[in-house]
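Note to self: keep these together.
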Amino acid sequence: MIDQPRASFLASQAFDFWQSGRAEDAVPLYEEALTFADPCHYGLPDYHGEFASLLSGRGRFVEAREQFELALKACLNQGASEGSNGVVVARYFLAEHLLSHKEPQLALDTLQPSMLNGIEMEWLLHYSKAFALQALKREEEARAEAMLALETVRSDEKRKELAELFAKGQVL
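Structure:
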């Protein structure tokens, strides 16, 4: 049964618990919130994404992956376009999760539908794609993606941060 006010309250309480170090107390609250959430509510992708991050931090990687996938699906089901910030962020977090679990090809496949030129967060996709390509030992392509990330990021501060991350990860 949909009860969005209840879902919002539970998700907010779960987030507060998680952030205050009470992750185990947050898990059942997120689970309950998701049973009441309206599939059309703008916060649904966030509920799934937050829950995924919490689960991943608790070592529950299979469940975390499912929640990251549901966050992306919720964005798309609500009509968000491939280049929209919500979809890009959802794809990024899913891809990063896949990369951290030695699934670089799946990470690339996850990113590909949103790899559009000129979108606001294009740099984030190139960033993640560079590391996925590096994990696949496709070094030249990884460097090219890293350069695209640096070219498309809109702030000098973020560009400097990315360059440091690429250098640390030995992509550049």
